[in-house]
Write a structure and sequence with these properties.
alpha+beta
Length: 234
């Protein structure tokens, strides 16, 4: 009997967002009630596990160039699917997306970080700082004021433009911020109240085998701006 051949190296399977995860979210949107959710909890648990495993791999991938997040666990990053309906006119009990914030300190941190939003037809990946508290907002504006050339170099970077085009302007004041002149050369950036990079994701991309690689590439393009924001707030 010939000697058995030694086993080759075991391949690590692709970590993907499964179609079944999106199917669950689509059905939840049409049946957003506790009764339906309880009946389909087993399907939710499968989707939840898939999401958790993907976020774990994404943390490890980002951690290779941003060591500040590499020790995070998925449970510290993933948001609950239950909605807080106490002060909302919309009383549907569940979110129709799965979201995770990968930032130093986890999802409750105000430090600049990465955010992945998975929702059929409305997925996106983002990074930066959303509505930072006044001290941090003032610090970022001051950093732009003091180092405009560094800031403009970041937003004109080819990878930044490729993935984000420009910083999001969803939170932008119409008046001139206190302490700055309306003729300031960077006044349009100083008017921002959030400093966000956003890249929309098609369902096809989210469900593809190389989604993890694409997410990592996009997050890596965010990293220089992330460093600028973190430095400003230190």
């Amino acid at each position: 009997m010939p000697d058995a051949k030694p086993e080759g190296p075991k391949t690590v399977p692709f970590i993907m967002i499964q179609k079944s995860t999106f199917d669950f979210l689509s059905k939840l949107k049409k049946n957003n009630s506790k009764e339906w959710f309880d009946k389909n909890r087993a399907e939710y648990e499968i989707a939840k596990t898939n999401h958790k495993e993907f976020i774990n791999e994404l943390i490890q991938s980002i951690g290779k160039f941003d060591p500040s997040v590499k020790s995070l666990e998925p449970k510290n990053c993933i948001f609950r699917i239950n909605r807080d309906i106490r002060f909302s006119n919309d009383k549907t009990p569940y979110k129709v997306n799965m979201g995770a914030s990968i930032a130093p300190g986890g999802k409750k941190s105000i430090t600049a970080g990465y955010y992945l939003h998975l929702q059929p037809g409305a997925s996106f990946i983002a990074g930066g700082m959303w509505q930072p508290p006044a001290p941090e907002l003032n610090a970022i504006r001051q950093e732009i004021d003091y180092n405009p050339d560094e800031f403009k170099k970041l937003i004109n970077n080819k990878d930044f433009k490729k993935f984000f085009g420009k910083l999001s302007e969803e939170d932008k004041v119409k008046t001139t911020p206190k302490g700055y002149d309306k003729t300031h050369p960077e006044i349009e950036f100083l008017k921002l109240k959030s400093f966000l990079m956003v890249h929309d994701l098609s369902d096809k991309i989210v469900l593809s085998k190389d989604f993890l690689t694409q997410c990592t590439e996009i997050c890596k393009a965010m990293f220089p701006m992330m460093q600028f924001l973190r430095k400003a707030c230190d």
